[in-house]
Amino acid sequence: MSLVLYWHPMSSATPIACALAELGVPHERVKIDIRSGEQRKLEYLALNPNGKVPTLTVDGAPMFEALAIHLWLGERYGVARGLWPKADAPERLQAMSWCAWSYVTYGAVLVRLQVAAHGEEALRSAVHAEAAREGLNQLLALLDARLAKQPWMLGADYSLVDLVVGSVIGYSVYLGAPVSSHAHVQAWLQKVQARPAMQIEA
Question: Model pTM greater than 0.85?
Answer without folding.
Answer: yes
